[in-house]
Fold this sequence. Notes:
By secondary structure, the chain is of the alpha/beta class. A hairpin with a 2-residue loop joins strand 1 and strand 2. It is about 15% helix and about 40% strand. The longest helix is centred in the N-terminal third of the chain and has 21 residues, at about 5-25. It has one helix spanning about 5-25, and strands at about 35-45, 45-55, 60-70, 75-80, 85-90, 95-100, 110, 125-130. About 20% of the residues are buried. The chain has a single domain (about 35-130), classed as Immunoglobulin-like, CATH 2.60.40. It is extended.
Amino acid sequence: MKPSVCNLAKRYFVIMVALAAVGCASMPTGMSGADASFTAVEKDGTKVWEGGGTVDLKGRDSITLKVTNTLGATHGFSIDTMKVQEVINPNEERTITVPRGNIDTSVSEHRVYCQLHPKHVTATLKVTGN
Length: 130
């Protein structure tokens, strides 16, 4: 018995949905393609840059950071060993691309801090594969 065009279309549709689901499941979530993300938040009355992680630099020309300020005031985002110094407005999300040439590869742990408010708690970004 020869399958009808309608049955073939249904099978094709099911296969395409399954492939799309597998593709979506393999995509990273929450960082929109960023290598690391940082969020300015307040914890127990203290403002901090939360986030960080480890990024493998091997074979890469740059790294991408997603930075979000959830607070009601402007905050700085600096990483001296990566030549990054930005001002992030309240409720702003920004993507920062750091070229490999700006990354001090003699350092493996990079201090992330607010240059506008020195008392804020810092974060760390670890870079491997120099």
